[in-house]
Each structure stands twice: as structure tokens, then as C-alpha cells.
Specification:
The complex is a heterodimer of chains A (about 425) and B (about 180).
Chain A: H1 8-14, H2 41-48, H3 63-76, E1 80-84, H4 87-98, E2 104-108, H5 113-120, E3 129-133, H6 138-144, E4 149-155, H7 167-176, E5 181-184, H8 189-192, E6 202-206, E7 220-224, H9 238-241, H10 252-256, H11 260-273, H12 279-289, H13 292-311, E8 316-320, H14 330-336, E9 344-349, H15 352-362, E10 367-368, E11 378-380, H16 392-397, E12 404-408, H17 414-426
Parallel strand pairs in A: 2-3, 2-4, 4-5, 5-6, 10-11
Antiparallel strand pairs in A: 1-7, 6-7, 8-9, 9-12, 11-12
Helix pairs in contact in A: 1-3, 3-12, 4-11, 6-7, 13-17, 15-17
Chain B: H1 13-22, E1 25-29, H2 38-48, E2 52-56, E3 64-65, E4 68-69, E5 83-86, H3 92-101, E6 109-112, H4 119-127, E7 131-133, H5 138-146, H6 148-151
Helix pairs in contact in B: 1-5, 3-4
Classes of the chains: A alpha/beta (about 425), B alpha/beta (about 180).
């Protein structure tokens, strides 16, 4: 039976995770080793030259990591995936393959604050230039594209505002301009939204969040959609379409076809920059992924209850959650993430900055920390933490003004979460 | 093997698996001795998996690579060919398929590599009862069915609760052939 015939939940458990060929172990073993022995010098040479499939060194690949990669690739509907140390590492590896010094990419200004920092500041050292566009106005991406533009980068559901992006409209602009669309699908997970079905070419995740889901392991992943033709425009993506000197002149796009991007991220990116995921973290994230559907649905259902309660509270000036019927992003949510609007959203307090600090200080169940996508409910004041390196104007653009509180709703009883917020507001 | 008819956009796993399990002799038209070329990778891989592989390349005729002698054309191969793997694109495809259709006995399978597709040639071959695969790589497909594809984070499209099989060499995964 073809995997395409199996449902999402079956694949979340079984995809990539056949019983171990050596021992028959049913659960995926943690291959906690740095290296793998070669049969002989010819075998070693074949592996290093990419002529044979096989393991060399955990910086580049590892059998536990490979199960994670295959599973994410299956759930997203991609051709292959590459796991790495974090979502930030995934983004770095993606842009390293696409960009030459002096190149540009267009990104939504409504991104996770850490991504805005990475793009605005650290990428400058490589002379990679980000040009910002407005995710609410797909045409703004088109206007920002120049001859130097190599990609478009957006989030499916934006952090922290929980805003849903019109993926198909922006994918169309990417296609017309013959550049790949990269989608950060961290907040949605493939359970809620699969960007490849709407025209994305590459998907990235922070696996640290809902995919792992238990707040215990860092990880990131790049998924290759297998849709983009890297060699169609001569010289535009030289790492993918030109002979590679470090592999004796091999051309990745010619040799690896529709998994060339994933292979490049592994054999050039992981090999030379080294942000490998640990086998134990890969195992922890895999364990979380087996219950992805159950968790995400509960996350979404509970979040809607909390958001509805906040929306009726006099101390609250506004709630930004696409799951609410009157939310401006509700229509987009129904189209792109019909099972739920995710579990991360923001609200504003009438008392402004001081009231925000009071609520964050007084909660007893919610944890005050800089993460999302845990079994535990989380609370943060973005302006003073995740987004604190941004200017006042950038804060507003990113939906993280001074009165804004961000919640990530966990898997506790929603009534207890509501009671906690109620006492924190009234205290 | 039973005869299949497709639109050639999607093949069932059992069709591909059946072809890779039943073929014993494979001629690769357009095989290369240059060890960074995809046509060398596939030649080497299929030899390692135990197939009897016959590289075809007129400019290499008489020379050999990996212990296999190159032949100038399909007609020169001294044994019956089960599967012809077409590693040439564009205008060359029709001529190669025509040559294959002159063989006696006929090959059981004509396989066109990833990026190679010629529906007219495919129809001609299918009319003679030959199974056709287009726009696929036998190395990739073997890797998906043996589980090796998963080693590099690939989406195999397959699920199984059975233990994966090791090749008799103990070194590589196999379909159990």
C-alpha cells in the first residue's frame, strides 16, 4: 500500500520509522554515536563522494535524525528533509544555499522577532540583504522584487499575532518571478496547514515548538518540496546548479533531481557550518510528533475558549486570534488552516504596559518564558523580551506594541487557564 | 508480469517494485565512466545491487568501467536484456526506443531517467507489451523500496511494520533479491 493512501495520523506514527534493520527494535533507537565505521576504503570513498547511501558522521547525518527527517517530509508532503540544531539554523542553511554576496530576498515584516533580527543584522555580515514587505498585501512582495532577489520568506501563521498569510497569492508572485517561496510553518505544523499544497517550494520549522511539543528539545528542519527547477535560470543558484569544487565538479541539481535542495543543505550546509541536531533531541521530537494531531487539536480548541473569554473581558482592549469569527484573518484561517488557528495569539490590555507587566507577574499556571508550543501554557510580553531588539516602528509592524501580551496555550484544562488569567487581571 | 496502463504521472509502488525485483539484466544507454556523473552513479549502484549491467555508449565501446565492458549499441549486447534504462534526453529517446524494439527477445521494461519523458515512444513500446517507466531514476526508486532513501531524510512514500532487509553483503539494504 502506498503511503499516499495512508492518513495523516498513521504517517505521524509510521512514516520513516520502519523497525530497525539490525536489531528489529520497534521504537526508533537513539543512535548516540558521532561516527560510523566504513567497510573498506572504497566504501568510505563512495560515501564521501555521495556515490553511495550511508552514514559517515553525525554532523552530516544520523539514523535517528533520518527517521525524523523522513517523517516531517511525509507529513508536509515534501520530497526530503534535513533536520538541524534549531529553526534559526534551518533558516541559515536555506539562505546559504540560495544567496551570493550582494543578493536580496523579500520577507514579511510580520515575522517572529528572532527571524527579523537574523535577517536584518546577522545576515548583513554575508552581504545578504532583506527587503521587507507586508504579508497583508501580497502585491507589496511583487514591488520589492529586483533582479537580485533570490527568494520570498513568510510565515504561514505569524508569530506573535497569530495572523494567517495568504499563501497562494504570494506563491503566485514567487512563481511569476521564478524565485522559490520559503514558508516557516512552525506555528501551524503540517496538521493545520501544508504550505506545499498552496505553492510553497521550501518549508522550514522550529521543531522546538509544537512538532516536539513538550518544551524539552531544540531542533529545526528544512523540507524540500521538490518543486523548484534550480537549473532553469543559468547561474542564478550556483551552489545548486553549477559544478561544485568540493565534490569534484558534481552538479547537485543534475545528480539529485527533486531532492537537490535537501541534499545541498546537508552536504554543503551541515557539513561546513555544523549545526547538527543531537540524536537524543531527534528522538524526543519524534516521540512528540507521534501525537501531533491529538495535541494540536486540543491546543486549538483550548485556545479558542481562552481567546473568546478574553474577548469579553473589560480589562482587554483587543484580541488578535484568527479563530475568532470577527477576526480580520478568520477567512484566511478557514482557507489555509481549517482545523484551527493554532495556539499562539496576542491581546492588548487597557492598562497598557503596566497592566501587561502585572498580568505576567501574577499568573500562577502560565509560565513566563521565551518559547511557544509546549504542553504547558506560556505567557510573555514581547516588547520587553522576544522583540526587544526591534525599534518602536518595527514593534508595531510585528504586532508587538508595548501593551501586547502573547500567550501560547498548552494542554491543561482550559477552565483552569481562564481562572488563572482572571485572578491575574483582578489581582 | 501483468501489463499496466498509466498516464505516467504516478506509478503504483507495486509496479515499480515488481520491475526492480524481476529484472536481472539491465542496459544503461548513455552510461558514463566519469565518476561525478549521475549516469556513473546509477551504473555503480545497480551493479552493487546485484544486477547484470551492460553500459551502452558508442564513444566508450570496448573500454570498461567498474569491470563492465561498454557496448556501442543495444544490438551489440550478447545476452537478452530485461530492462533498457534510457539516460539520454530530448531527440535521442525515440531512436533508442526504436532500437530496443528491434531486439529479440524484446526487453520487458523500458525505463526513462528522471527528466526524460517521451509519450509517443512509450506508446509504441506499450503496444508491444513492454512496461514503461518515465521520468524516474532506478537508483532513487530502488532506494525508496529498500529503505536507503530514508537514510538521507527522503520521503519514501512507503510504510511498513516489517524489519528492513539487508543485502547478503551485509552492507547495503536490498529488496531481498
Amino acid at each position: 500500500m502506498s503511503e499516499e493512501d495512508y492518513g495523516f495520523d498513521t504517517r505521524a506514527i509510521h512514516a520513516g520509522a520502519q523497525p530497525d534493520p539490525a536489531t528489529g527494535a520497534r521504537a526508533t533507537p537513539i543512535y548516540q554515536t558521532t561516527s560510523f565505521v566504513f567497510d573498506d576504503t572504497q566504501h568510505a570513498a563512495d560515501l564521501f563522494a555521495l556515490r553511495s547511501f550511508g552514514n559517515i558522521y553525525t554532523r552530516i547525518m544520523n539514523p535517528t535524525q533520518a527517521v525524523l527527517e523522513s517523517k516531517v517530509a511525509s507529513l508536509e508532503g515534501g520530497t526530503a528533509a534535513v533536520a538541524c540544531a534549531s529553526g534559526h539554523a534551518a533558516q541559515f542553511l536555506v539562505f546559504h544555499l540560495l544567496m551570493q554576496p550582494g543578493d536580496e530576498f523579500v520577507a514579511a515584516s510580520q515575522l517572529y522577532g528572532g527571524s527579523i533580527n537574523q535577517f536584518n543584522h546577522s545576515f548583513k555580515s554575508f552581504n545578504w540583504k532583506v527587503v521587507w514587505a507586508n504579508a497583508d498585501k501580497p502585491r507589496s512582495f511583487e514591488k520589492a522584487i529586483t533582479k537580485k532577489t533570490k527568494a520570498i520568506f513568510i510565515e504561514s501563521i505569524a508569530n506573535p499575532g497569530g495572523k494567517v498569510t495568504d499563501l497562494a497569492a504570494i506563491a503566485e508572485i514567487a512563481r511569476e518571478n521564478k524565485i522559490p517561496l520559503i514558508v516557516d510553518n512552525t506555528l501551524a505544523t503540517p496538521y493545520l496547514c501544508r504550505p506545499f499544497e498552496h505553492g510553497a517550494d521550501i518549508v522550514v520549522h522550529s521543531l522546538t515548538k509544537f512538532m516536539g511539543g513538550h518544551g524539552n528539545s531544540m531542533g529545526g528542519v528544512i523540507v524540500d518540496g521538490g518543486t523548484f527547477n534550480w537549473s532553469e535560470q543559468a547561474g542564478k543558484y550556483p551552489l545548486l546548479s553549477e559544478p561544485n569544487a568540493s565534490y569534484n565538479g558534481m552538479v547537485l541539481s543534475e545528480t539529485f533531481g527533486n531532492i537537490a535542495f535537501a541534499i545541498g543543505a546537508r552536504v554543503l550546509g551541515l557539513r561546513d557550518f555544523g549545526p547538527a541536531i543531537s540524536p537524543t533531541n531527534a528522538f524526543n521530537i519524534l516521540t512528540g510528533m507521534e501525537t501531533l494531531s491529538l495535541r494540536m487539536q486540543r491546543h486549538c480548541d483550548s485556545t479558542l475558549k481562552v481567546a473568546k473569554w478574553l474577548n469579553k473581558n473589560d480589562a482587554v482592549s483587543w484580541v488578535s486570534y484568527a479563530g475568532l469569527k470577527k477576526d480580520p484573518y478568520h477567512k484566511l484561517q478557514k482557507r489555509y488552516a481549517p482545523k484551527g488557528a493554532g495556539a499562539v495569539f496576542t491581546f492588548g490590555l487597557n492598562g497598557g504596559y503596566d497592566m501587561g507587566v502585572k498580568v505576567v507577574s501574577n499568573v500562577e499556571l502560565f509560565s513566563h518564558l521565551a518559547n511557544v508550543g509546549d504542553t504547558r501554557s506560556l505567557i510573555i510580553h514581547p516588547a520587553s523580551t522576544t522583540h526587544s531588539q526591534l525599534s518602536a516602528a518595527q514593534l508595531l509592524k510585528a504586532g508587538a506594541g508595548p501593551e501586547v501580551v502573547r500567550l501560547s496555550i498548552g494542554l491543561e484544562d482550559p477552565a483552569d487557564l481562564i481562572a488563572d488569567l482572571d485572578q491575574a487581571i483582578k489581582a | 508480469m501483468t501489463k499496466h496502463r498509466f498516464d505516467h504521472n504516478r506509478y503504483s509502488p507495486s509496479y515499480i517494485r515488481g520491475i526492480l525485483r524481476d529484472a536481472k539484466t539491465i542496459a544503461i544507454v548513455g552510461a558514463s565512466a566519469n565518476d561525478v556523473r549521475p549516469s556513473f552513479f546509477v551504473l555503480k549502484y545497480l551493479i552493487e545491487k546485484g544486477y547484470e549491467v551492460y553500459p551502452i555508449n558508442p564513444s566508450m565501446a570496448g573500454k570498461s568501467a567498474l569491470g563492465r565492458e561498454f557496448y556501442a549499441s543495444l544490438a551489440d549486447v550478447p545476452v537478452a536484456i530485461d530492462m533498457v534504462d534510457v539516460f539520454r534526453g530530448g531527440d535521442a529517446v525515440q531512436g533508442i526506443v526504436d532500437e530496443a524494439l528491434q531486439l529479440s527477445p524484446l526487453p520487458k521494461v523500458i525505463w526513462m531517467q528522471l527528466g526524460v519523458r517521451n509519450d509517443e515512444a512509450a506508446q509504441k513500446a506499450e503496444a508491444k507489451g513492454i512496461n514503461v517507466v518515465m521520468n524516474r531514476c532506478p537508483k532513487m526508486e530502488y532506494g525508496k523500496h529498500s529503505g536507503e532513501w530514508q537514510w538521507i531524510g527522503g520521503n519514501t512514500g512507503l510504510i511498513s511494520s516489517k524489519k528492513q532487509k539487508l543485502h547478503s553483503s551485509g552492507r547495503v539494504q536490498s529488496l531481498g533479491i
